[in-house]
Amino acid sequence: MTDSENNKDIEILAFAGSLRKGSYNKAVLRASKDLAPKSMHITIFDLAGIPLYNADVEAQGNPKQVTEFKEAIRKADGLLIATPEYNHGVPAVTKNAVDWASRPTQNAPLNEKPVGILGASPGMTGSARGQSQLRQAFEFTNSYCMPQPEILVFRAHQKFDDDGNLTDEATRKYLGKYLEALYNWVNKFIEE
Ligand code: FNR
User: Fold this and answer.
1) In the chain, domain spans
2) In this structure, are residues 171 and 118 in contact, taking their beta carbons and an 8 Å threshold?
3) At what angle do helices 92-101 and 128-140 cross, to 10 degrees?
4) How far is the CA of 165 from the centre of ligand 1 (A)?
5) 8, 7, 1, 13: which is closest to 113 by C-alpha?
6) Which atom of ligand 1 lies at the shortest distance from residue 87's CA?
7) Dist. CA 3–CA 127, nearest whole Å
8) 20 lines ligand 1 (CB under 6 A)
9) What homologous superfamily is domain 3-187 in, according to CATH?
10) Does the reported pTM lie above 0.90?
11) Ligand 1 pocket: which of 86, 95, 125, 154 to mutate (most atoms <8 Å of CB)?
12) What does each of the 192 residues of the chain score in pLDDT, given as a tens digit?
């Protein structure tokens, strides 16, 4: 399908690697829904119901929320992942979701899926190391991680209001550009 300007509609599944209500990473995804190009439709999946990966559980059949998560990834044209950084790495919540979606190895939802990574943190590095480490996982899953641009929402506590709205104009502008780049990136992998 195409929009009024003849741009192809694309579906993006987004998730944040944080479970807390006031998460800056969740807030960045909500802002992304507003700032994305018109033809890019973002659905946010809440990871709250995803249990810790356990191969014994998986062998007996995926839990309902995991099945829903994996189906949502399969259906999407691409992913947008907002990850915090914990102790200079990828938080367990983000990595656990990726681990479920990387199974089964031969027919994984993440296989050949285009992915955009972003992240927010109150610190000065804006989740840079968490994002960087997350990229490594997508080598194994054979996913197409957008190399550039990157977006590091640093000093996040100064960029949102009390209701979690992204109020910093420079970040809004840059996030819009990032999402345009992601739209173009995902389009490269859609078969005509
Ligand atoms: C953090 N935080 C953090 N921040 C950072 O920039 N680098 C880091 O290495 C860490 N390490 C870290 C470890 C743990 C266990 C916690 C709980 C926190 C702070 C982190 O960026 C902050 O809590 C963010 O607000 C988390 O993201 P959400 O929940 O706002 O999306």
Assistant:
1) 3-187
2) no
3) 20
4) 19
5) 13
6) 9
7) 34
8) yes
9) Flavodoxin domain (3.40.50.360)
10) yes
11) 86
12) 666 566 899 999 999 999 999 999 999 999 999 999 999 999 999 999 999 999 999 999 999 999 999 999 999 999 999 999 999 999 999 999 999 999 999 999 999 999 999 999 999 999 999 999 999 999 999 999 999 999 999 999 999 999 999 999 999 999 999 999 999 999 999 987
Cis amide leading into 149 (omega within 30): yes
- In three state form, how does the secondary structure of the chain look? CECCCCCECEEEEEEECCCCCCCHHHHHHHHHHHHCCCCEEEEEECHHHCCCCCHHHHHCCCCHHHHHHHHHHHHCCEEEEECCCECCECCHHHHHHHHHHCCCHHHCCCCCCEEEEEEECCCCCCCHHHHHHHHHHHHHCCCEECCCCCCEECCHHHCECCCCCECCHHHHHHHHHHHHHHHHHHHCCCCC
List of residues 6+ apart from 182 with CB closer than 8 A: 12, 40, 78, 80, 116, 146
Token pair for 84: 């915090």
**What's the token pair of residue 92?**
């367990």
Does the CB atom of residue 94 touch ligand 1 within 6 A?
Answer: no
- From the CB of 75, is ligand 1 less than 6 Å away? no
Measured CA to CA, the distance from residue 138 to residue 145 in angstroms comes to 7
